[in-house]
Structure formats: structure tokens, C-alpha cells
Amino acid sequence: MQPSIIEMIYSQRQEIIDRWKEEIQHFSDNEFSRSLPSEMYNETNVEFVHLIIDTLELEQSEAKEKLRQFVERFIHTGWPLSFFTQGMQAFRRVLLETMTSQETINSKKVFETFYEVESWIDGIINQLVDEYSGSWENTLHLQKLALKELSAPLIPVFEKISVMPLIGTIDTERAKLIMENLLEGIIEHRSQVVLIDITGVPVVDTMVAHHIIQASEAVRLVGAECILVGIRPEIAQTIVNLGIDLGKFPTRSTLRKGIETGLELTQRKIVKISSDEFR
Amino acid sequence: MSVQSNVEVRTEWGIVSARQAGRNLAKEIGFSSVDQARITTAISELARNIYLYAEKGEIIIEAVEEIHSTGVKHGIKITAKDKGPGIKNIRQVMEDGFTTSGGLGAGLPGVKRLMDEFDIDSVAGEGTEITTIKWNS
Q1: Which residue from A7, A279, B15, B18 lies 20 to 30 Å from A266 (Cα-Cα)?
Q2: Pick the CATH number of A155-265 from 3.30.750.24, 3.50.80.10, 2.70.98.40, 3.40.50.970
Q3: Which residues on A lie below 8 Å from B38 (Cβ)?
Q4: Chain B hits for A244, Cβ within 8 Å
Q5: Of B19, B37, B104, the CB nearest to A206
Q6: Interface predicted TM-score (ipTM) over 0.85
């Protein structure tokens, strides 16, 4: 930026800051700012505006780093991006008003000044948006990973018996995971019976049913048996209405009944022992 | 209750949000939990058809009412619209077990059984519009 512009900004630094503070009063009355103590809000404003002006005399990379550190703190505490973008827009308005109020500047100079100020401010806004969206993408990525870890666990509950509890919507990607985890788990735990629990699946449409049928067919091929449990009454009715044939598919109403059947299939049962035996 | 929600279906998440909107409205109208499940399943089928065959389209969910001599009947109307390839042979897709995607082929005939009124309008190469209503008895 031209030294003359920087000089101008410095010479009117206090005036610009004061006017900016006034300007942002207009949109400070939102839910977020009301939830904060006003000293903290004002302190942040002051820190922000000084930082903006300080970036003028810093090296570009240094300024970027400083801004990044500043913003990072606020991303984590949940400050909205609009606070910063609106703040920057107001700053630009104030700056241009202050600068052009001096009558000595000719029109060509005005244009140049506008251009320089615009690119400076836009650079900062772009960086702010980048920092925020980068942090959102990162969060989204981590959540996706976490969800994937939760999506289709196979739990060995007894010798030869495993349970796969399914909770939430089943989409194509998850259906693939269900299939993979089922088959791998059966081999790993040497399961003979797998119970698929759909208590937590909100909607069983033809696609979900199709995936479950396919999975059970694959389970049969690796030498185990699949039992569908946790069919809620309303789901049972919709399955019948849809006309999905689960006739070939062993089903039980609850996980408990499913485990009993699983034990029967592996020639075992749970018995209650009398209290003398227990001693 | 002049609520109407339009949900755009482009991804599998669109299917989920269409279902959610349908379930909320069905609850508001006062459908039983069995009917809520029927309605959400029907929406799921219609939205999935859009996603699978037309790539994009929209699901419109609205509350409807019909005035009878005995009182007012409330219901939910679901419209699935797309500008996809259309359906060449409507009679065939309404048969159980017919599928072009390797699925179960129970989708559209299933929706018809889940709901009370069902209307399908499709022109090959132009798109498909399916309208279906469930009345709260």
C-alpha cells in the first residue's frame, strides 16, 4: 500500500476507531452479543480493530499468522463469523468516509485509495472466511469419522453369538459397512449366529430391507445364520404393507428372544442355578 | 395448518430431511405412530426413487383437508416431482417385483398400499410427478 495512505490512516487512527465503534453499535444488538458480558464484547472489538490497523505495518505472512491466531481463539469459543465480516465491512465504510472527507484529495487519488483499501480489507475478510470454513470442514470430517466408527459395530456377546445393533438412518455407505463388518466379524469371532437389531432404525423402506436381506444371504454363505430382532410394531406393519417378503428370514421381536434362539441353535441354554449350588 | 414444506432431493441426506419434514407434519396433524411410520416410509421410497433415477427433484409435503357432512377430514399430501427420464411403462412399475435397479421392486406398489390415494403422471424423457394422500381416520 502507498505510504501516504498508511500515514493518513495512522494520523487519524483514533478517529477511525471511535467512528468504527459507533458504527458497529448498530448491529451489536443481536442474540449473540447479548449473551456476552459487555466488557468482554467491547474488549474484543478494541483488540480486533487494533489488529486490523496493525496488519498494515507487518509483513504479509506475519500479518496473516497474527490474524490466524486471533481468529482461532474465537472460533473455538463459538463467535459467529458474521461478527467479524460485519466488523470488517463497517471498518471499510468508516475508513473510506474518513479519508474522502478531506477535500484535498483529487478524484484520481480517491480511486486509487479506494482500490488499495478494498484489496486490503477484502484480503482480511477472505482470510477470516477461510479460517472459519476450514475449521467447519475439519469438524465435519472428524464427525464423519466418529459416525463411521459408531455405524456398524459387531459385538460378540456369547461364544458363537454376535450382535449388531443398528441405530439411525441406513444409507448406501453404511449398508456397505454393515456388510463388511458382519462378514469380517463372523470370521474373526467364529460366530454361528448373528443378531441384527433394528430397534433404533427409524424407517425400514425397501432399500433398507433389501440391504438387510442381502447381508443375511452373505452371512449364510460364510456358514452362519442371521436373525433379525427389534422389529417395532409399526415397522412390522409397514413392512407388510410394502409387500416385502421376509419369510425366508428368521425374525424375533426382541434382542432377548433372539439371544435365546441363538443359544438354542448352538445347543445351549441359560439355566437358573439353585442357591445351594451357588454356595 | 397451511404448512407446506419443499425438500430438495439431490443426495441421500435429502431423503432423510424429506422424511423428517413428513414425520413432523404427520405428528402435527395427529396421525397415529403406525400411520406416521407408513407416511415416512412412503416419503422415503418416493425420495429414493428421485435420487436413484432422476438424480434430483423435490418432495412437497402439505396438510390437506376435506369437508364432509360429518365433519372435516385431515390428511397429508405428498408430491414427488422430478425432471428425470420418466417412466416408460407405468403399468409395469406398479407390479410387485418389477425392478430396473436390482432392488426389491416393491417401492411404488408399496407406496400405493401404504397411502390412501395415489396418482402417477409420467412422460418418458420429461419427468415424473407422483401425488399421494393419506387421510387421518
Answers
A1: A279
A2: 3.30.750.24
A3: 234, 237-238, 241
A4: 104, 106, 110
A5: B104
A6: no
Q: Which domain holds residue B128?
A: 4-135
The C-alpha cell at A236 is 412390522
Per domain, the residue ranges of chain A are: 3-144, 155-265
**B-chain residues near A168 (CB < 8 A):** none
Cβ-nearest to A243 among B15, B34, B96: B96
- Contact state of B41 with A172 under an 8 Å Cβ cutoff: no
Give the residue, B30 or A73, on which the prediction is more confident.
B30
- pLDDT tens by residue, A33-53: 667 777 777 788 888 888 888
Distance, in Å, from the CA atom of A224 to the CA atom of A217, rounded to the nearest integer, reads 10
Convert the pLDDT of each residue in A89-137 to its tens digit.
Answer: 888 888 888 777 766 666 677 777 788 888 888 888 888 898 889 888 9
Domain A3-144 CATH class label: mainly alpha
Task: Give the H or E element holding residue A45.
Answer: helix A38-54
In angstroms, the CA B89 to CA B123 distance is 10
Residue A163: CB atoms within 10 A of its CB come to 22
CB contact under 8 A, A237 and B34: yes
Give me the percent of chain A exceeding a pLDDT of 90.
27
For residue B14, what is the domain's CATH number?
3.30.565.10
> Considering CB atoms only, which of B15, B40, B106 is closest to A242?
B106
Into how many domains does chain B fold? 1
Residue of chain B nearest A234, judged by CA positions: B34
* pLDDT tens, position by position, A201-253: 988 988 888 899 899 999 999 999 999 999 999 999 999 888 888 888 899 98
The answer to whether residue A203 neighbours chain B at the CB level (below 8 Å) is: yes
Q: At what angle do helices A172-189 and A206-221 cross, to 10 degrees?
A: 20
Residue of A nearest to B45 (CA): A205
The reported pLDDT for the residue numbered A106 is 65
